[in-house]
Amino acid sequence: GMRYRKDLGATERAERISHYLKLFGLADFADSYPNRISGGMRQRVAIARTLAAGSDVLLMDEPFGALDALTRERLQVELRQIQIREEKTIIFVTHDVEEAVFLADRIILFSRRPASIVADIDVAAELGP
To answer: CATH fold of 2-93, please?
Structure first.
């Protein structure tokens, strides 16, 4: 996504890239090819690329679905921390109820086809302090 940011100079692009590589713990792998890093690292690269491009809203469609349980849990924690630090809006699609409750401020539950909204849940209000 950074290649489309014509409003940023080379120095600012390099700074953004460096910032997000460090933020996701990927700085040591900056020159690695995708086939040389783990699936969890590839997911972190994808999220870092999106954030570096400067999007205010991220759409994530089951990004952790193909990962093992430990990697998935670690990335959920990292994503939540980054969302808070970076103040980004994330629309996260998942079929995992626990994942939705952990990551969400708000959950929109859809019915089967044709999809319609079944519930709109304010997670903080439902779970309490």
So the answer is: Rossmann fold (3.40.50)
